[in-house]
Amino acid sequence: MVKEHGTFYWVIFYLVIIAAVIFFLYPVVYLFMTSFKSRLDIYVMPPKFFFVPTLQAWVDAFTKKPLFHYFFNSAVVSFGTTIISLVFGTLAAYALARFRIKGSKDISFFILSIRMFPPIAAAIPIFLWMKQLELIDTRFGLICAYTVFNLPFVVWMMREFIIAIPQELEEAAMVDGLTRMQAFRRILLPLLRPSLVAVAIFCVIFSWSEFLFSFLLTQTEAKTMPVSISEFITWREVTWEQVSAAGTALIIPVLVFSFFVQKYLVRGLSFGAVKE
């Protein structure tokens, strides 16, 4: 391969890869570094990359705001909407993939179009709906709002993954005496595990970092981390060190979660790509 393209080709190739990695990682690294800077070091120009680290920004951020409570809210809402979306979305995807439903292609396109629908356009109707149901400033209200956008994504993705699995596997299991739901649970779900994890990762990331609906539908009790970070920006000042500390605290759980499930992510997204 090296002889085929030449050394110069691979030098340029790796230089481009390194430049891309630096470009995308620099904001995250700078955010992390800023969270350990003093206020004086933050405003120094040019920026200082070598400084005496301090934990004062982290202490101030977690003492001035109940970030642990907001952190808990984000976790409950993210995993709650992910579980609900996976359960109902996978069942709906199974029905669209395995049963002959009149207009199934139109239904699939309609579901996909909901996911392409800009969330800001649905903000006012969802707010009025939640207000009428008295779900403003509740975790359940946020879970319902996030599920509206996560569910179509799950149905769309899982339908393609289910289609990629030969239907003969389930038919053979049903010939052996299993019901359709038993075949779905014992045969299909184990094969779909990597795909379920991959789709779950995207649902968690969307819910974890979502700002718009959390800002509109919460006040104090159900407020999530993204909204709480914006409150460090006031008309008097912007405490960048505390914003960076809270932002880093928001990013770390997703990075850790993605690190431990990355093998499932790659396997799930490439599922069905190669067929013999």
How would you explain this protein's 3D organization?
By secondary structure, this protein is mainly α. It has two domains: 2-55, no CATH class; 57-269, MetI-like fold. Helix content is 74%, strand content 0%. The chain contains 14 helices and no strands. Residues 272-276 have low confidence and may be disordered.
Q: Radius of gyration, Cα only, in angstroms? A: 23 Å
Instruction: Kindly report how far apart the N and C termini lie.
Output: 26 Å
- The outline comes out as globular
What is the top-level CATH class of the largest domain?
Mainly Alpha
Q: Mean of the pLDDT scores?
A: 83
Quickly give the CATH architecture of the largest domain: Orthogonal Bundle
Compact overview of the structure:
This protein is mostly helical. Helix content is 74%, strand content 0%. The two termini are 26 Å apart.
Topology:
Elements (H helix, E strand, L loop, with lengths): L1 H4 L1 H28 L4 H4 L13 H9 L2 H32 L5 H13 L6 H10 L6 H25 L4 H8 L4 H30 L2 H6 L7 H6 L9 H21 L1 H8 L7
What tags apply to this protein structure?
14 helices, MetI-like fold, single chain, disordered C terminus, 2 domains, 276 residues, mainly alpha
